[in-house]
Each structure stands twice: as structure tokens, then as C-alpha cells.
């Protein structure tokens, strides 16, 4: 780091070199070559730092280009702030992206017989019983008969569940693997294609497990694996049926493997 | 192994039994309290009516007081007037509404005892009753884009005008549910529509920065666009009928370009440009005392004299943009000389006196003409103002948890209703701004609300695609009106109370009736 503004001072006293501008121009002209050289040849930590800085620069550059392009557009008509007409009181407000189930789109979709039972993940890989259950053999009797099982996958357990007495408890659902909430994504469909730009993800409470594709027993146990259909509480999304009733529960399908990720992600079904 | 729920525990059972017991307790009036002396006063004049009367406490409910007061005034059976009562004490300056009976409002909280003489101020309620609309009478397609504003004609409920995103405004025949006229001319969305107080003309303001006037009967344009604003028009207000110079009505238009322009409708020129706001003007109201009230994004409300275009007052208390204004006399000014009987005075002079009388009746409190103003803001609060007496607000109304988008005064000025983006409609006392109740039920932002002509009901329109009718007295949902397929942007209750018109993003006008 320079300790003082000595270059400026020198320039004030003596003036610039006669070929200063020319050198400046040439250096700028070669800037691209230098960047390219650095990008290709730097190694190790310096490469990492360089790429980080370059990444930031590129973001700024793209933003500027975009702003420039917007400025260049000429229109005769008065600028309307949005495509869809809005009343006066909503005009100057930033519109949050609202995923809204467009009712007509949904109706069209439901009318197709095939689409009625279509889900985002139609097929999932099977899970064997050995993988799902661990045999619990604590205590003499249990050890002898080996009839007690611990579930090794995440589960949903209802709010008011109480465990049965140890003697009668056949399946143990570990506390650490219980989930109450799911990150639910709602897509807006145009026809049958989802528009990712209008998707909204919210964390919603799980109400129940409707269907586990692996085994009906897992449905009863509330096991959350990839492809499981769950019911979520959508009351805070403010959805309304055509008859004006507030939609409370809606079905969603789990899209990730919760035991690997530590969270439940799901897609709302239409 | 289905998840079987265990039977409820003893604690749960006890709690339930407790709750059941609590609910059974009714608030009854003890019968051993004897009687209380009641003196009636007229709210408008402040004069006592009749002598002080002794009333048994057990029977001193609103219904009986009403009968008593009618008898004191010598009203015959067929001309009995429903009244609302309020207790007002000079010393503490507090006002308490008698909601059900004297005991629960005054005696039980210890405001008065049975030894005192209770002075009750009465205000007449509307003698007619509006029936709650309950069904969709017509669902009319026609607009090609979302409907952004609606307004009923002040004359009766048979015509309505709507402004839309398809660059047109349309006049609808609400009796038959058919389109009457299409007002074409604007080159962008029509954001504001307003009927003139005599119902003969319509003003529309648009995104294309122009204002246009139309003949309401024939649906033809009265001349071309009025240019002047440099940004879109946000709101329009007609000069009240009794203030107008004869044959020279005027309109004030508020715009995003932070000015308000007062237009002469006949000679089609700008009378005055009211400049002073520093940001978009969101709302304009023309009061019955001849002042223009404007609210703006620059956090202030300004009051102008439209005669010479000077600024009279600036009211600043809000901490964020002001979204909407309502005057206590809005309903009287909107309907001018039209009333629920449908009789229209014959000559111009008679009309003017009728309109003036109606305004003065509405605005007179204690023999002075008082126009109150309520403003809703993005700072989640509302303020009640009395601009003629002070630059300071009368009351601050707290309670909304998100931006307040819309406020209205009830036609009898007893209530203020506010609609907010927090899904609630709240009801406040129109006199002192005290909180009364919250109407819960919408599950999306509430955009607009409108009182019925008799002030007994309120309709609100919401983002959750429904309209809801609320009962003002009980604070309960009266009627749920689903049917719109998308957000409902605009709603209006016709001044005669017959119909409700609504429109929104689903491009359909819906007419609701009982």
C-alpha cells in the first residue's frame, strides 16, 4: 500500500509523462488479455481469490448492461408499471410473487383423466425392510423373540400421540427423526407446465401422511420417504375454493430424501 | 397399526366442562336496582327533549328507550324513528355509546349510579332498512381486462359505471344485467370513475394521463381528452352540488405527478393547479364547505381553497404515505338531492336547496357545521381530523397490523370502517375514533369496503375472491358472497341500498341483490 499520495504529488510537480495517455490506452486495451491469462494460469489460493473477485465484477457488469438495455427501449405509449392491470391503490407497491392456483388452469388439468392421478414423482426406488427397520433386542424377552422394531427413517407423528406401554410397543419412532413441518413449494401451471419463476416456497405444518408408496404399513406409521404424499396445513396461504370456503388442508408430495437432508421438501399437488 | 388416539385425559375433560359452564352464564340485569332518571338531549342541537324520566333499570334497554323517546316527542305509531343513544359527560369529555342497555354501558362500569340523572344524547337512525344482499343477480362479461374501479349512479341503483384495464369504461344496466354503453377513448387503463352529483355526467381518469367526461345517459364523450397531468390519474372528485356555480360544475383530479388539477367541465379548461405535494397524490375529496382535501405519498394531507387555488392547511402526523381519505359527509355529498324516496326536486334552485339542506343536516353537530376527515396510511394507523378547528388530529386509530388501504364513514357518520392488508376490516367510532370491533373472516388482503345506505351493514371486497357482508351492530358476518374467480378490486353499494356491484381481476362485473 502506498503511504502517501506520492504519485499525485509527483504529477503535480512535474506533470505527466509525455506518453502517459498512450500507455494508459494500451494498458486498458490489453486488460482483457491479462484477465484471461490470470484466469487460466493462477493456481491455488490466488486463483480462488481471483475468481471470487471476477465473479463479483461480472455480476455488476451484467446489472449495468441490463440497466443500459432498459434505458434504450423507446415506447410511445405511457409506461405501464406492470403487464396486468392493477387498481390505483396497488400501483406503487412492490408486488411480492404470489403463487396462486389459477382456478381455470386447475380445472382444465383435473378434467384430463390421466392427470387426475398424476403426481410430480410417479416412481420411486423401493426400500427394503432391512433398511427401514432396525431390530431392537434389549432385555431378555425381546432379545429372545426379536419382535421389536426401530424405524430408521424420518417420520411424522401426530400431535396427540402417546406411546403405548413398552411391553406392547412394536414399532419405535425415534424422537430425533420426527418432523412437524415441510418446506412446500407451490407452482403456477400454464397448461400442464409449471412456471418456476412464479413458484413460492413456504414452511407449512404437516397434518398427516396420506400415502407412502413403499408399503401401506409405512403410511400408518407416518414414514416420510421420497414420494410420500402428505397433507399440509395451507390456511396461511389464504387459498379459497370457488364456493368461498377457505382451503385448510392440501396434499403435497415429498421430493427429497429427508433422512439425507435433514428437512422435508414437498410440492403442492393441484 | 393405525394411530389410535387415546381417550381424553381427566384434565382435558375438566377443562371442557369448565368452558361449557362459563359459556352458559348470561349477562343479565339484576332486578333489584330500582330505577334511574334519564334526560334526553338532541345530538344535533344539544337541547333537552322532554322532562327527565324515571326508568326501571331492568327495562332500560335501547328498544324501550326508543319507544319512550318516540312517545315523548309525540310520534304516531307509523312515524316512529329508531334512535341511537350515547352518554356524554361535559366534565370528563367522554362519550359512551349505549349498545344494549343502560346497566351494562353505564352502571356496571361505575360511570353513573342509580342516584344520578343520566343525560343521553340521541341521534335518529335511518328509517328505512337495507336488506342484506344475498345472491348474485347478474354476472356480466364484457370487459377484456381486469376491472379497476366501479361506481353506482347517485340517482338510483339501476346504472353503474366501471373502469377497466382494457382502456374502456362501461355503463351497465343493473336491472336487466346488460351492458348499456361502452365509453371508448382512453389509450390506457381507466383507473378512476366518478359520477357527477346530479348523475348526468361521468368523469374518468386514466393511466394515459388524461381526464375525460361522458354523458351518462347517452354514453357519448363530451369533447376530447383533457391533458395537463404528466403522470396517471389516481382519483377524481366532483364539486358538491350545492357549492357549484350554476351551470359550471368542476372536477378535481389527483395524479401521480404530485399535483391536483381543478377542471371546469363546461369550458374544459384548468381552473387551478394545486401544487405543493412532494409526491404522488393518492386521494382527493371535495368537501361540502367548499374545501379540497388531498392525501399524498409525502405523508401529508393538504387542504386547499379551490376558489383561488391557495393552500389553507397542512395536516402532518402520519409517518408513511397516506393512502385514502374519507369525509364524514361523503354520502350526503355523493347523493346530493337524491334520497331513498326517489323524488327529485323540479327546479334547479330547489335541487340546490335540497342538496344544501341534506349536507347541513349531515354535518351539523351542536349547531355548528363540522366536517370530519379520516385518513388511512401505510404506517398501519389512521387519524381522525377536524380540520376546521385544529391542525392536530382528534384521535389516532391503532390496531391494524399491516397497511391500511381504505377507510369509509358510514352514511350516518356514527362509524368508520377501515380495510387493511392484514385481512381484517375494523370498525371505529366515528365521533371519537374509539375502536369498536374487528371483522375477521377474510383470508386475503381486504381492498375496499362500503357501508349500506342505512349504516347497518358493510360490504368488503378482498384478494381472497370473496365479498363479505358484515353486520355493524353485532360485529358478525352476515353473508358470505363467493363467486368471483379472482381478486375483487372494486366494490360499491348503491346509494339506495338495493344492489352491490363488484368487479375484479376475473373481468366480470357481478351485481348482487337480496
TrEMBL record, chain A:
InterPro entries: NSA2_fam, Ribosomal_Se8/biogenesis_NSA2. Residues 1-87 are annotated as: Disordered. Keywords: Nucleus, Ribonucleoprotein, Ribosome biogenesis, rRNA processing. The keyword Metal-binding does not apply. Residues 53-65 have a biased composition (Basic residues). GO terms for biological process: ribosomal large subunit biogenesis; rRNA processing. Residues 1-37 have a biased composition (Basic and acidic residues). It is found in: Nucleus, Nucleolus. One of its GO terms (cellular component) is nucleolus. Belongs to the eukaryotic ribosomal protein eS8 family. Ribosome biogenesis protein NSA2 subfamily. Component of the pre-66S ribosomal particle. Involved in the biogenesis of the 60S ribosomal subunit. May play a part in the quality control of pre-60S particles. This is Ribosome biogenesis protein NSA2 homolog.
UniProtKB/TrEMBL annotation, chain B:
It is found in: Nucleus, Nucleolus. GO terms for cellular component: nucleolus. WD repeats lie at residues 140-182, 183-224, 226-265, 274-314, 397-438, 439-480, 481-514. Belongs to the NLE1/RSA4 family. SUPFAM superfamilies: WD40 repeat-like. Pfam families: NLE, WD40. Its main location: nucleus. The lineage of its organism: Eukaryota, Fungi, Dikarya, Ascomycota, Pezizomycotina. GO terms for biological process: ribosomal large subunit assembly. PROSITE patterns: WD_REPEATS_1, WD_REPEATS_2, WD_REPEATS_REGION. It comes from Penicillium olsonii. Residues 1-27 are annotated as: Disordered. It comes from the Eukaryota. This is Ribosome assembly protein 4. CDD domains: WD40. Keywords: Nucleus, Repeat, WD repeat. Residues 36-89 form the NLE domain. Gene3D superfamilies: YVTN repeat-like/Quinoprotein amine dehydrogenase.
Amino acid at each position: 500500500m502506498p503511504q502517501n499520495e506520492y504519485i499525485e504529488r509527483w504529477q503535480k510537480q512535474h506533470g505527466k509523462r509525455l506518453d502517459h495517455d498512450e500507455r494508459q490506452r494500451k494498458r486498458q486495451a490489453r486488460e482483457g488479455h491479462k484477465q484471461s491469462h490470470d484466469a487460466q494460469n493462477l493456481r491455488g489460493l490466488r486463483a480462488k481469490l481471483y475468481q471470487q473477485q471476477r465473479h463479483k465484477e461480472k455480476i455488476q457488469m451484467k446489472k449495468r448492461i441490463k440497466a443500459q438495455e432498459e434505458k434504450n427501449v423507446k415506447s410511445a405509449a405511457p409506461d405501464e408499471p406492470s403487464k396486468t392491470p392493477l387498481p390505483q391503490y396497488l400501483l406503487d407497491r412492490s408486488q411480492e410473487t404470489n403463487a396462486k392456483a389459477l382456478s381455470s388452469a386447475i380445472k382444465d388439468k383435473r378434467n384430463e383423466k390421466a392427470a387426475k392421478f398424476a403426481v410430480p414423482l410417479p416412481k420411486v426406488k423401493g426400500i427394503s425392510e432391512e433398511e427401514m427397520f432396525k431390530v431392537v433386542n434389549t432385555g431378555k424377552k425381546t432379545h429372545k423373540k426379536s419382535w421389536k422394531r426401530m424405524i430408521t427413517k424420518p417420520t411424522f407423528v401426530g400431535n396427540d400421540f402417546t406411546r403405548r406401554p413398552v411391553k406392547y410397543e412394536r414399532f419405535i419412532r425415534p424422537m430425533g427423526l420426527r418432523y412437524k413441518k415441510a418446506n412446500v413449494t407451490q407452482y403456477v401451471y400454464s397448461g400442464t407446465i409449471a412456471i418456476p419463476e412464479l413458484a413460492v416456497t413456504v414452511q407449512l405444518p404437516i397434518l398427516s401422511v396420506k400415502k407412502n408408496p413403499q408399503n401401506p404399513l409405512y403410511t400408518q406409521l407416518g414414514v416420510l420417504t421420497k414420494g410420500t404424499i402428505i397433507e399440509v396445513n395451507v390456511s396461511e396461504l389464504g387459498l379459497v375454493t370457488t364456493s368461498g370456503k377457505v382451503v385448510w388442508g392440501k396434499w403435497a408430495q415429498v421430493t427429497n430424501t429427508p433422512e439425507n437432508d435433514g428437512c422435508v421438501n414437498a410440492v403442492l399437488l393441484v | 397399526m393405525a394411530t389410535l388416539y387415546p381417550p381424553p385425559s381427566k384434565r382435558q375433560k375438566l377443562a371442557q366442562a369448565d368452558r361449557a359452564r362459563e359459556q352458559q352464564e348470561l349477562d343479565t340485569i339484576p332486578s333489584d336496582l330500582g330505577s334511574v332518571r334519564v334526560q334526553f338531549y338532541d345530538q344535533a342541537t344539544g337541547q333537552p327533549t322532554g322532562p327527565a324520566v324515571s326508568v326501571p333499570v331492568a327495562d332500560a334497554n335501547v328498544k324501550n328507550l326508543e319507544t319512550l323517546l318516540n312517545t315523548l316527542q309525540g310520534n304516531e305509531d307509523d312515524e316512529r324513528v329508531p334512535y341511537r343513544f350515547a352518554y356524554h359527560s361535559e366534565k370528563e369529555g367522554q362519550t359512551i355509546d349505549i349498545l344494549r342497555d343502560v346497566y351494562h354501558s353505564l352502571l356496571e362500569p361505575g360511570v353513573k349510579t342509580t342516584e344520578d340523572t343520566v343525560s343521553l344524547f340521541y341521534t335518529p337512525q335511518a328509517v328505512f332498512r337495507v336488506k342484506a344482499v344475498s345472491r348474485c343477480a347478474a354476472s356480466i362479461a364484457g370487459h377484456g381486462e381486469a376491472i379497476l374501479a366501479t361506481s353506482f349512479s347517485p340517482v338510483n341503483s339501476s346504472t353503474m359505471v366501471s373502469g377497466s384495464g382494457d382502456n374502456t369504461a362501461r355503463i351497465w344496466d343493473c336491472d336487466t344485467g346488460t351492458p348499456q354503453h361502452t365509453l371508448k377513448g382512453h389509450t390506457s387503463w381507466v383507473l378512476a370513475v366518478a359520477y357527477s352529483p346530479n348523475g348526468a355526467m361521468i368523469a374518468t381518469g386514466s393511466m394515459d394521463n388524461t381526464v375525460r367526461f361522458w354523458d351518462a345517459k347517452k354514453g357519448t364523450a363530451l369533447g376530447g381528452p383533457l391533458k395537463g397531468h404528466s403522470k396517471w390519474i389516481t382519483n377524481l372528485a366532483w364539486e358538491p352540488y350545492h357549492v357549484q356555480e350554476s351551470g359550471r360544475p368542476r372536477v378535481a383530479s389527483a395524479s401521480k405527478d404530485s399535483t391536483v388539477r381543478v377542471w371546469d367541465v363546461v369550458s374544459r379548461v384548468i381552473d387551478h393547479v394545486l401544487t405543493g405535494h412532494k409526491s404522488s397524490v393518492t386521494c382527493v375529496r371535495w368537501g361540502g364547505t367548499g374545501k379540497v382535501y388531498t392525501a399524498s405519498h409525502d405523508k401529508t394531507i393538504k387542504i386547499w381553497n379551490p376558489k383561488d387555488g391557495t393552500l389553507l392547511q397542512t395536516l402532518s402526523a402520519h409517518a408513511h404515505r397516506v393512502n385514502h381519505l374519507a369525509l364524514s359527509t361523503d354520502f350526503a355529498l355523493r347523493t346530493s338531492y337524491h334520497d331513498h324516496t326517489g323524488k327529485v326536486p323540479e327546479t334547479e334552485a330547489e335541487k340546490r336547496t335540497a342538496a344544501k339542506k341534506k349536507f347541513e343536516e349531515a354535518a351539523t353537530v351542536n349547531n355548528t357545521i363540522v366536517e370530519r376527515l379520516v385518513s388511512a396510511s401505510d404506517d398501519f394507523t389512521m387519524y381522525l381530523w377536524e380540520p376546521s378547528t385544529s391542525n392536530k388530529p382528534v384521535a389516532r386509530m391503532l390496531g391494524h397490523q399491516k397497511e391500511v388501504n381504505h377507510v369509509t364513514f358510514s352514511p350516518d357518520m356514527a362509524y368508520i370502517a377501515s380495510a387493511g392488508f392484514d385481512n381484517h376490516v375494523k370498525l371505529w367510532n366515528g365521533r371519537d375514533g374509539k375502536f369498536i370491533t374487528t371483522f375477521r373472516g377474510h383470508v386475503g388482503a381486504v381492498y375496499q369496503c362500503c357501508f349500506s345506505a342505512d349504516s347497518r351493514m358493510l360490504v368488503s371486497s378482498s384478494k381472497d375472491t370473496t365479498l363479505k357482508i358484515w353486520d355493524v351492530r353485532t360485529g358478525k358476518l352476515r353473508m358470505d358472497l363467493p363467486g368471483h374467480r379472482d381478486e375483487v378490486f372494486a366494490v360499491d353499494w348503491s346509494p339506495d341500498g338495493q344492489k352491490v356491484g363488484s368487479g375484479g381481476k376475473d373481468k366480470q362485473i357481478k351485481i348482487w341483490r337480496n
